Amino acid sequence: MTTVTNGVNVQALLDAREVLKGAPEAAQFTWRASATWQNGVHSQIKVDSFFGLGEEKAHKQESVFEADHPEIFAATDKGITPIEYLIVGLASCLTAGVASVAENRGIQLRSVTSTVEGAHDIRGILGADSDVRNGYNDIKVTFNIDADASQEDIEALVAQSQKRSAVYDALANPTNVTVEVAPK
Amino acid sequence: MLERGEVANSWRRERWDSLRLLTPNWQSRLPGLSYDGPDPDGYMTAGEVSDLIERFAAVSRAPVRTGAAVTSVRQSGDGYLVTTGDGELAARAVVIASGACNRPAVPAFAGEVPASVEQLTPFDYRDPGKLPDGGVLVVGASATGVQLAAELQRSGRPVTLSVGEHVRLPRLYRGRDVLWWMETAGVWDQRYDELDDLARARRLPSPQLVGTPERTTLDLNALTAMGVELVGRWAMTRDGRALFSGGLRNMFSLADLKLRRLLDTFDEWALTSGRDAEFSPPERLEPTRAPESSRLQLDLGSGEIRSIVWTTGFRPDYSYLGVPVVDAKGQLRHEGGVVGSPGLYALGLPVLRRRKSTFICGIEDDAREVTDHLAGYLAGR
Hints:
- The complex is a heterodimer.
- In chain A, 33% of the residues lie in helices and 29% in strands.
- Chain A is an alpha+beta fold.
- Chain A folds into two domains: 6-79, 2-Layer Sandwich (GMP Synthetase, Chain A, domain 3), CATH 3.30.300; 81-184, 2-Layer Sandwich (GMP Synthetase, Chain A, domain 3), CATH 3.30.300.
- In chain A, the strands form two sheets. In chain A, strands 1, 2, 3 and 4 form a four-stranded antiparallel sheet that branches. Chain A has a two-stranded antiparallel ribbon with strand order 5-6.
- In chain A, a hairpin with a 2-residue loop joins strand 3 and strand 4.
- The longest helix of chain A is centred in the middle third of the chain and has 24 residues, at 82-105.
- Chain A is globular, with a radius of gyration of 20 Å.
- Chain B is α/β, with parallel strands linked by helices.
- Chain B has two domains: 9-102 and 315-380, FAD/NAD(P)-binding domain, CATH 3.50.50; 105-314, FAD/NAD(P)-binding domain (3-Layer(bba) Sandwich), CATH 3.50.50.60.
- Chain B has helices spanning 9-13, 46-59, 143-154, 178-184, 198-203, 220-226, 248-272, 363-380; strands at 70-76, 79-84, 87-91, 94-96, 103-104, 118-120, 135-139, 159-162, 167-168, 172-173, 176-177, 207-208, 229-231, 234-238, 241-244, 297-299, 305-310, 314-315, 334-335, 338-339, 344-346.
- In chain B, the strands form eight sheets. A five-stranded parallel sheet of chain B has the order 6-17-7-8-13, covered by helices on one side. Chain B has a three-stranded antiparallel sheet with strand order 1-2-3, with no helix packed on it. In chain B, strands 14-15-16 form a three-stranded antiparallel sheet, with no helix packed on it.
- In chain B, a hairpin with a 2-residue loop joins strand 19 (334-335) and strand 20 (338-339).
- The longest helix of chain B is centred in the last third of the chain and has 25 residues, at 248-272.
- Chain A binds chain B through residues 137-138, 152, 155-156, 158-160, 162-163, 168-169, 171-174, and chain B through 232-233, 235-236, 238, 243, 245-247, 250, 253-254, 257, 260-261, 293.
């Protein structure tokens, strides 16, 4: 196999898989984000730490996200809409998966771009029609991939990426969600 | 040779009425017993399989002790003490041949299904008449699931089929049975110690195949054409509703891509073996047709679904095994049928030594190697 350099350390991932097979408790991660209301429907979300491999971990730097709604929603548009953050997560997760699977399969990537479109009927969130759901009705991702591989092998990359994607799973499958109010 | 019931017990008692073997008759051969009937391309009914095994017991003069269910196997000295319903046996070596399909595997959320919905496993199912009239939810689209979905839909019960990862196969490819290709092109001979991902190969679901005199393909497109509704994998139950995955399209893509790769393997073999001209030209199947949008939930209390058939696979039962050789997931730890405890062996498990290990014609090569090891062990003690 020729050496490919997509920049993914696949060996480290394969090693981690072996280690965690025998240590399921170390595989339990908690991701967290903290949001602060600003004004109107604008909020600011910070992410700096998570829990994993049995201990608290810090990101190299804190990330700050602005979430708002567009002006056609009579809002200030100081950041993207919360539901857009979902497709940001989906696109980045699937792209990371494509790169990792390509590295593991010895496929050199030259470019990977994708477009994610989420079809959303906003009558749901407005309460205009109780039969319409609040969330996306359909999400469509289109990849354009230039790589040293056949069309069929590229399709297999994208299929495998979906199969091992955290965000794809979180969107395509139900998840229990608990929202609480902390005591005063 | 200890048999819990009578010879071919599971084929007599744990199979539904219409079941036929997936392998054609010519391929359903055992050492010293080849098919000599009038229909080599047909598929045996469960009753005919029972007859075959009974005949093999006689031809091979196997020392079968029937009605001797094993209740425990324990280490004792440098051998094993085997307790059966018919007394105890001391053995220097033991071969576990109780198989991988002793109990239907049913997900935990089956317990959350309303009592108004009848639930069955393949061990309970015999024929559609056993189910109430009305809608049926069949869960799992491997060989059992697609066969029961087709039969139930034909009986007039509207079937919804919940589809997870699956293995798609045409019944015939280029004029030959697809299992002829698996055997002849060498796929079935791939050895366990040469596979990239043995754990995955051993977990592979059974292919979407049915043995019918018409030799028809029973893939998801065939079921859709019959009117079966496809939904995604049943992920969880919430408030009396079954929630299905929205990832159905990728299940189709994965199966279609794997099928194309397999057919490529067959075509390459046909060319390199110089036999290409014997077959009709290469074909590619139409991709699995995805429903416009698949339903994501189903209200189990609405009366739309009157029964659920769990075709979600099977698990082995090693509860009789008092030797610490079973892993946390209930699977036997072994290396090509050689179990970690000296003198203990296994046969007839998925990809034990080859991809064909669980097919009738696949046991011979495995058995020879495992018994060679066993004979060496006994001789070397």
